[in-house]
Amino acid sequence: MDERSLLLLGLLKAQSQHGYQLNEFIEKNLSRVTDMKKATAYAVLDRLKAGGLISETMEQEGNRPPRKVFAITGEGEAEFERLLVETLAAADRLVLAGDIGLMFLDHLPREQARACLAQRLAALEERLAAHEQTPQHGHGIGVDLAVEHVQVLLRADRDWLRGVVERLR
Fold it and tell me: What's the longest Cα–Cα distance across the chain?
C-alpha cells in the first residue's frame, strides 16, 4: 500500500463515489499535491477491492450505462487509519530526477549548463506562481497544510536554483 491507496481510501471515507467522480475530484482539486493518473487510480481501486478494503456496486441512472460505485469497508477504514498514521510519521525521501543531470553538469560548456538551469528556474517559478494561486480549502487544516508544504519546497528549490545560476555566471 502507498499514499495513492491512502488518498483513495480517504476520499471514499468521506463518501461513496464512482471512479469518474474520484478522478475528476483529484484532477480538479488535488492536482497541486498529487499527480495520480486515471489509469493508476483504477488499478489501485482494483487492488483495494481485491484486498477487501472497498466494495463495489453497480448503479444506473436513467438511460446512462451502469457504473461502478465504490465504498470503503470496515477493513478499509482500519487500513486507512493505519496508512494515515504511518504516512504522517514517515520522513519522505526527496529524490529529484533533475539531480541526476546536475551530477553531469560539468560535461557541458558552462554557459550552456547555466542556460539550461535558467530555463529550469523559469519553469519552476511558473509552477510556484500557479501554486500560490491555490485558494484556501476552508474545511479543516489538512489540505491547506499539504498545499503549503509543496509551496515551501518549491520556494526553497527556486532560491537554491537562483544561487546556482548566479554561481555559473
Answer: 66
Residue 19 CA: distances (Å) to CA of 8, 138, 165: 10, 25, 44
CA dihedral 86, 88, 90, 92 (to 10 degrees): 130
| Beta bridge partners of residue 56, listed in sequence order | 70
Q: Which amino acid is at 134?
A: T
Burial (Cβ within 10 Å: 0-12, 13-18, ≥19) of residue 156: exposed
Distance CA 99, CA 95 (A): 8
**In whole angstroms, what is the distance from residue 46 CA to residue 140 CA?**
30
What three-state secondary structure class fits 58? strand
Q: What is the model's pTM?
A: 0.78
The C-alpha cell of 43 is what?
Answer: 488499478
Q: What is the CA radius of gyration of the chain?
A: 20
Q: What is the pLDDT of residues 127-154, one digit of tens each?
A: 999 889 888 877 778 888 988 999 999 9
* Residues in a beta bridge with 68: 58
Contacts of 59 (CB under 8 A, 6+ apart): 18, 66, 67, 68, 69
